[in-house]
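Continuing the series of single-chain predictions for the mutant panel. This is the parent chain; the variants come on the following pages.
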Amino acid sequence: MDKHIAFIGAGNMAGALIRGLLADGVSPGHLTATDQSSEKCRALHTATGIRTLQDNRAAAAEADIVVLAVKPQVLRQVAMELADQVQERRPLVISIAAGVRCSSLERWLGGDVALVRTMPNTPAMIQSGATVLYATPRVSAPQREQAESLMRAVGLTQWIKDESLMDAVTALSGSGPAYLFLVMEAIEAAGRELGLSPETAHLLTLQTAFGAARMALESSDSPEALRMQVTSPGGTTERAVGVLEDGGIHELFQRALEAARDRSLELSADLGVA
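Parent structure:
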């Protein structure tokens, strides 16, 4: 990618994107990041070689792509600060701030903006994320490719056509790592209760989760089909799965994702005010 990219905010997700882009061969000279902390700027420059600034407007004034990587609670203030530069420069704007709808962000930026809203999840920090993208009508085909290329630096990408689905995305992949960590936590604890040492229970849980995820990624079969393949009739797995199903595991996950989606809707409404 030969476009100049300005990251407004230099937190964990911005850092992951920067490292991913550099690993993909993007020149450090094409990347700029801003942060209010001079120490954070120095540390990022030392680690990556990219230019760092404390002036958001100066960074945006030279950018072809502006990545808004600040906390959702301060995004309104930051966007309004950048509105003049965005209106003059007309960059592609990519938001990785959770919960802020395009209509609100576009209004804060002065309107008529090529805007892509994204929802990455935390495994992006190790280049194993899942990112969903939504583009407003003003985003051109080349700009869609640029946005996808940028977010692909930290993992899988998937487009949606309806922004309202972002709340479901938040519930599934945005919050999803926590659900899987909770399952791993429960399995590990159960293994200890069965007499395994903490070290053995921990290692076996992690490797089993990793192996199952890799099998699912590399197989053309559905998770249900893969589960059936390891569930022999009358065997130990069938007995265990029966306990989970009798406990209502499917219904629990349905309720959990609905609760997360509903909370996402509430937060989006609050963040879009003004």
